[in-house]
Design brief:
The chain has 187 residues and is an alpha+beta fold. 20% of the residues lie in helices and 25% in strands.
């Protein structure tokens, strides 16, 4: 028996599960995240013109490897470095995956493989401003038992609702998961 695909829907920014109690404003914990972003592209002349400087920078956090960043190549960045747009798409994918794995473990579903190929769409406006219009997550998950297949697919809805990053953005984050059992396609 094949796993049915999850319904294609998008989380409305800030939406809370209709079956859940309304958010009452209480906070059970506050977490602070601090990083250092340092521009390394002055090249001695700084920003004397738009083309005079490198967009290269480094992202650091205590005890972690440095991330080499730049702007997108379309904005004169280094295509070999991570850009903020890629990092936003990656953060949404990571958050969804980590919630999904937590929910699967809690539900007794054994996931043996998880891979996502997310795609973010950004629209640039004539004045140079722009914004993301959506991110589509495309997780491919392998579970060990056919009996868990349907539930494994619906857990993506719960992961989407709980993901801190998806709840914080002002554009839709959709998911189109594919679930397989032991490597056999069960979409």
């Amino acid at each position: 028996m094949a796993c049915p695909p999850a319904p294609n829907r998008a989380l409305t920014p800030g939406a809370i599960d209709p079956g859940a109690a309304p958010y009452d404003g209480s906070v059970s914990a506050t977490h602070i995240y601090e990083v250092l972003v340092e521009w390394t592209g002055s090249g001695g002349s700084g920003t004397t013109s738009y083309r005079s400087y490198s967009r290269d920078h480094e992202i650091r956090s205590a005890g972690k490897q440095v991330i080499a960043g730049s702007s997108d190549a379309a904005f004169l960045g280094d295509p070999d470095r991570w850009n903020p747009e890629e990092l936003l798409v990656a953060a949404l994918s990571q958050c969804h995956m980590l919630w999904y794995l937590h929910l699967a473990a809690s539900a007794g579903i054994v996931v043996i493989s998880y891979k996502d190929l997310p795609v973010g769409t950004m629209t640039e406006l004539p004045d140079g401003a722009g914004q993301f219009t959506e991110v589509l997550l495309r997780p491919s998950v392998t579970v060990t038992e056919q009996v868990a297949c349907a539930r494994a697919t619906t857990l993506h809805d719960d992961a989407e609702r709980l993901c801190f990053i998806a709840r914080s953005v002002n554009f839709p984050v959709r998911h189109e998961p594919v679930t397989t059992v032991g490597g056999k396609d069960s979409t």
